[in-house]
From TrEMBL:
Keywords noted in UniProt: Hydrolase, Membrane, Transmembrane, Transmembrane helix
Protein name (Swiss-Prot/TrEMBL): Alpha/beta hydrolase-fold protein
InterPro entries: AB_hydrolase_fold, Esterase-like, Mycobacterial_A85_antigen
SUPFAM superfamilies: alpha/beta-Hydrolases
Organism encoding this protein: Kitasatospora nipponensis
Chain ranges passing through the membrane: 20-40, 52-70, 85-103, 110-129
Protein's UniProt keywords contain Cell membrane: no
Pfam families: Esterase (PF00756)
GO molecular function, one term: hydrolase activity
């Protein structure tokens, strides 16, 4: 295996420039507004009375139509499009429409200027939407799928392993050998649904420096999931998962959890609800297929306290679901900006499409209903959400209270931000120390 994606290349300079704060997004914003103003202003009286109002009305109508098509009809993801995102989509459409209305009477140079102005408006809209989610903080992250090559996982078994004695942390008995790599490795691997029949995309596997030692320590496992829409690569690229783990390992003699970023949805626009239902058997995939693969291909610590599950948004909701429906496997969970109920957009639609209208079948696996029936005194978890997240904040507080009433040892944390990658990245980094302690890695 080779180094984690992007870290084998000396990517400095422009690729490291910030796209969500600082000079670049500000310059793009100024240029975009100037371009929109230039497109909107014309000496022709006919422009002001007919073409400009027509462009504005069409842009507004298209934005409203998109809103209803996505949020009410298609519903590719349970939460609606944020108003700020809709606003910037509308501005982008307005820029394109203004340019189209300006083109007919213009000469070649004027047409080129109008096209460039429209592109600047679109660039501004895309930049502002990116600032909303902070998914691409740098050009390196934006271009990661094309710049980086992530090798396929090639398993190997060490002749000797070492485990933490009962009652002690692994760090107390681990002695790193000379020449231990400073960074872990990231690779991709197929992780098929042998029992579930589910067809996921490839998973990403992070193996910390200590896993590469001749005498391999038996490390705990963190199963991590991204949001929807999204995929496993989001945690690697936008989430900087490997950098977070490497930073932890650097302070703990190369020790860090093994991280397996799995795919519980199958494609960007699917919504499996992370349940066993008419849609797919994703709970079986995460509770049986994933651990089966780990036990076959890796050497790891055993027991529910050595296994944790976590995720963001859809993945956070999913983590809570597995913590209460497969507590024999996952003794800890990390729910970042998740929901209080898995949904396809509405409760009625969820029950109808996933369970044929059978409320009892839904209640049997819905985390809040499960926690109302059972207690989980041996489960530890954390809820993390953005302080300004008006959509998911109330749901996180609801789920947190339900988990606490079910006897779990849980914490609730708000971080600066909304439903964005600043919160997701900060949630993983901030909660990693207690997870490592809980999983028997450090004291």
């Amino acid at each position: 295996m080779t180094a984690a994606p992007g870290r084998s290349l000396a990517l400095h300079g422009p690729l490291q420039w910030h796209l969500t704060h600082g000079v670049i997004p500000t310059a793009v914003l100024v240029a975009g507004w100037a371009a929109l103003l230039g497109l909107a202003v014309c000496r022709s009286a006919h422009w002001w009375t007919r073409r400009l109002p027509c462009a504005v009305v069409l842009a507004l109508a298209a934005t409203v139509l998109l809103h209803y098509a996505v949020d009410s009809w298609w519903q590719p993801f349970p939460e609606g499009l944020p108003r700020r995102v809709l606003f910037w989509i509308g501005i982008g459409l307005l820029g394109v429409l203004l340019a189209l209305f300006r083109l007919p009477p213009l000469r070649r140079r004027g047409r080129c200027a109008a096209i460039v102005a429209a592109l600047l408006v679109l660039l501004m809209s895309g930049s502002q939407i990116n600032r909303q989610f902070d998914q691409y903080p740098t050009l390196r992250v934006l271009l990661a799928p094309w710049l980086n090559h992530t090798p396929a996982f090639v398993g190997s078994r060490a002749d000797r392993t070492t485990a933490a004695p009962s009652g002690r942390a692994l760090s107390e008995v681990w002695q790193p050998p000379a020449g231990l790599p400073a960074k872990g490795t990231v690779s991709t691997t197929a992780l098929p649904g042998q029992r579930s029949g589910f067809q996921p995309r490839d998973a990403y596997l992070y193996l910390p420096p200590a896993y590469q030692a001749p005498v391999r320590p038996l490390l705990p496992v963190l199963v991590l999931m991204a949001g929807q829409p999204g995929g496993p690569g989001d945690w690697v690229n936008s989430g900087g998962m490997a950098d977070t783990m490497d930073a932890f390992a650097a302070g703990h003699q190369g020790l860090a959890p093994i991280v397996l970023v799995v795919d519980p949805i199958g494609s960007d626009w699917s919504n499996t609800l992370c349940m066993d239902s008419k849609i797919a058997k994703v709970q079986t995939y995460l509770a049986q297929d994933v651990p089966d693969w780990v036990h076959t291909h890796l050497q790891t610590a055993e027991g529910r306290t050595a296994w944790a599950i976590g995720g963001l948004s859809f993945g956070g909701t999913c983590a809570l679901q597995l913590a209460v429906n497969a507590p024999q496997l996952y003794g800890s969970f990390l729910d970042i900006s998740g929901q209080d109920e898995p949904t396809l957009g509405s409760h009625g639609r969820t029950v109808d499409e996933a369970f044929g209208g059978d409320e009892a079948a839904f209640d049997a696996v819905d985390p809040l209903h499960v926690m109302a029936r059972r207690s989980f005194p041996d489960t530890v978890g954390a809820f993390v959400v953005g302080a300004s997240d008006g959509e998911f904040g109330p749901q996180q507080r609801h789920a947190f209270q339900a988990a606490r009433q079910a006897g779990m040892t849980v914490t609730y944390t708000e971080l600066p931000g909304a439903h964005d990658w600043n919160v997701f990245r900060g949630g993983l980094a901030g909660q990693l120390p207690w997870m490592a302690q809980r999983m028997g890695l450090v004291r």
